[in-house]
Amino acid sequence: MAFLNPLLLLGTTAIAVPIIIHLMNRRKYQIVSWAAMKFLRASITRNRKRLRIEDLLLLLLRCMVILLIALAAARPALRSASAGAGFLGPRKVAAVLILDNSYSMSQTDGTTSRFDQSKKSLLAAMDTFPSGSTASLSLASDSVDALVPEPTVDLNLVRKAINDARMCDRASDLSPAIRSAIDVLNKQPLGASREIYLATDGQALAFKDLDGITRALDQVKADMRAHVVLAGGQPTQNLAVSEMRLGNEIPAVGRSLRFDVEVTNFGTTVAKNVPVTLAIDGRPPSDQAIIDTLDPLRSRTVTLYGRMDAQGYHAVTAALPADRLPADDTRTLVVHAVAKVSVLLVDGDPRDSARDAETFYLRHALVPVAAKDVADYFVKATVVSATDLANARFDDFDVVVLADVPELSAAQAESLSSYVRRGNGLLIFPGPRTNVEFYNNVLLKQWNLLPASLGEARGDADNDQKFIAFSPTDVSHPIVSIWKDPANGDISRAKFFRTYLLKPVENPPPATHPSAESATTAPSDALAAGATHTILRYTDGTPAMMERDVALGRVVLSASTAATEWNDLPVNAGLFVPLMQRTLGWLGAAADRNLNVTVGDELVVHPSPELLGQEAVVSRPPAAPGGTESRRVELADHVPTVTYAQTNWAGVYNVQLADKTLMFGVQRPVADSPEDSESNPAELSPAQLDKLAASADVVRPGASLAESVGRGGVGTELWFAAAVAALILAASETMLQQWFSKSK
Labelling 378: which of 2, 220, 289, 364 has CA 20 to 30 A away? Predict the structure, then answer.
């Protein structure tokens, strides 16, 4: 099968030139009678047939010369390598090279990683390209990074890009890269052999859209070829730190903090006696646990403890012994340690007797120590009545708690809204004195603070025989996740006799402003709030506690009281104390909730307004390419902001501002199941490989890439043969013309 450049074939129309000249030479002559005319006429009559044949032969040769020159310029080529090989010359290649750089490619055979093997494969493929070929290069994970976007004749540039390429810590999905390659090649001229070279480890996860990949390749199979070059051999055993969480405690300086570390066995055999260590700021491990047995494709969570010695940011790393897939053997979490947490408890019903006050149990749950130890405890609780709230400054506290507060003044509501949006926490316990209209109309509709509206109060607080309880099965939220383990107690033992019906906010209502002054303190763009989430449900399925991120802050709303008027939760100390402590930790961490993000997510910093226009210096982890980069502090939605999106590598990132240095942790993605994890080395099954081989040339580990390319046929060009034939015909035409012009 031959390929031609249709635009250059327009040159074949030049065939008309010698024909036109031939026809023009057949003009009429003026008749002049003279004596010898009859002898000449007799000679012409005898030779007319021979002359006509000679003219037509010369005309044919001239047309063929022009036709062959036009064909040579159009660079015709045969698809088969065997047709016209050698003398005819190889056909040029327009190639798109795809290099899988997801973190599964870090798997080694003991000496060489699959990533390095794939680099060598692509370089070997380029060595087979004829002179004048072009190539581009893309890195593929779950995103496409075009290092050389369009095919270029500078193949040394492409080779350098391959050698300089680095792995990232993203997961893999090769479908977008293949579709992008097809789009690039569709723009290339038909005269070149259009080729896709994909170098990967054959991980099944990367081909999760195998049907879509083969369908896309089949649609262009007549115009381009694809080669899938597989690196490595049989998948090895692999253990990974698949997830790590702070136990939702307040990360106070000097306090022993709990970290839940999940380890997953991605191998096919049982792993035994697996050590898991915890280290802080690169120091020797502070704790270690041993997992006795771990079945294939199963996970186990161990609890490790660490202590922060100073206020500020700390890097906490969980680690396993190194194996042949080193990228997932560690996981680092950034923790912001605080010296203390200040809480303002606003009591809506202080009472004469302290024990009857709305905040009595709440204060003791937040500061659960003896009186002599209160001064040294890291939680500092201050109680004020609702009537004395005007004398308190919200900004002196990290968290504000409204306990059955009837309502706030307009100025207090506006101040509270600004306080939350600046990165602080708000906890609300409604009760019998709560003005429902104020909460729904002012805090929700006007200031967009609440995760739900307050419906009717239901139940009878005086009837202790009829109650509802927390659902023991809905404990996935980080605040209550410890009750997944029955050893931590039964969360359903508390009884609720009367509660408000919480109606979750599906779509946040547009915020309104009572005055122009309020718009300056809370711009409309900053009033947008995040989605609502249910922390706990009652056994009847209705929400018991809900939360919502509001700008930089966070709000938690309960459906019942913090005192014993409507429930007996406060007197269940083994339940109430950890629930309040963990809720306080969740609210206190609102401003730091973006300290740990997933690879590919943006790092976002909101510096003080004084730094607007200045530079922030971002330092990436040691494993990431490059050193530091600068970003300018600019306004985004009326807030000074620094964003950094080059987070393709897991580890610790430092953002240095003029007044401080922030630390961020970038984590590898957490999969919903082991089968969906990039750490899972499972490769394509034989059936899947056969399906892929029907649409592309699959070069298995150990096979020769050069032989595969040869079998498929890069193709041969016919332009040289056409040019040689044109030269021969031109010489023949010249000799015949000389021969025919001789006297006969």
Answer: 289
Q: Going by DSSP bridges, is the β-strand pair 77-78/661-667 parallel, antiparallel, or unpaired?
A: unpaired
Question: Among residues 571, 599, 733, 721, which one has the least CA distance to residue 171?
Answer: 599
Domain ranges of the chain: 2-26+34-76+720-740, 93-235+683-715, 239-317, 341-458+492-592, 596-667
Tokens of 707: 């032989």
CA distance 171 to 142: 6
User: Can you read off the two tokens belonging to residue 2?
Assistant: 């031959």
Output the pLDDT for position 354.
72
Q: Of the CATH numbers 3.40.1360, 3.30.70, 3.40.50, 3.30.700, which one belongs to the domain with range 341-458+492-592?
A: 3.40.50
CATH classification code of 239-317 = 2.60.40.10
What are the CA-CA distances from residue 244 to residues 240, 248, 557, 668 (Å)?
A: 11, 12, 27, 11
pLDDT band for position 660 (cuts 50, 70, 90): confident
Fold match flag (239-317 vs 596-667): yes
Residue where the block lists tokens 């193949």:
155
DSSP code of residue 379: E
How sure is the predictor about 185, in pLDDT bands with cuts at 50, 70 and 90?
very high
Q: Whose CA is closest to 329, among 467, 169, 208?
A: 169
The single residue listed with the structure tokens 């708690």 is: 401
Cα separation of 237 and 325, whole Å? 9
- CA-nearest of 412, 476, 480 to 447 is 412
Among the ranges given (52-61, 117-126, 202-211), the one the predictor scored with the smallest mean pLDDT: 52-61
What distance in Å separates the CA atoms of residue 658 and residue 643, rounded to the nearest whole number?
16
- Considering 7-16, 71-80, 209-218, 485-494, the range whose residues carry the highest mean pLDDT is 209-218
Contact between 174 and 672 under an 8 Å Cβ cutoff? The reply is: no
Measured at the CA of 291, the angle between CA 288 and CA 296, to 5 degrees, comes to: 140
Measured over the CA atoms of residue 384, residue 388, residue 393 and residue 395, the dihedral's sign is positive
CA torsion through residues 342, 347, 350, 354, sign: negative
Domain 93-235+683-715 bears CATH identifier 3.40.50.1820? no
| Mean pLDDT of the 201-216 span | 94
List helix spans (H) across 33-190.
37-74, 114-127, 155-164, 175-186
* CA dist list (Å): 667 to 102, 383, 524, 597, 717: 14, 40, 33, 6, 51
Rounded CA separation 289/276 (Å): 5
What is the predicted pLDDT for the residue at 107?
92
Q: How far is CA 416 from CA 35, 292, 394, 518, in A?
A: 127, 51, 7, 12
| Cα 374 from Cα 293, distance rounded (Å) | 44
- CATH no. for 596-667: 2.60.40
pLDDT at 80 over 50: no
Sheet containing strand 639-644, edge to edge, reads: 603-605, 639-644, 634-636
Asked whether 194 and 94 are in contact (CB, 8 A), the reply is yes
The pLDDT tens digits of the residues spanning 669-688 come to: 988 888 899 999 889 999 99
For residue 232, with 0-12 CB atoms within 10 Å meaning exposed, 13-18 middle and 19 or more buried, which class applies?
A: buried
Distance between CA atoms of residues 585 and 251, nearest Å: 8
3-class secondary structure per residue, 21-52: HHHHCCCCCCCCCCCCHHHHHHHHHHHHHHHH
Q: Are strands 529-537 and 543-550 parallel, antiparallel or unpaired?
A: antiparallel
Task: State whether residue 319 is helix, strand or coil.
Answer: strand
pLDDT of 285 > 90? The answer is yes
pTM higher than 0.90, yes or no? no
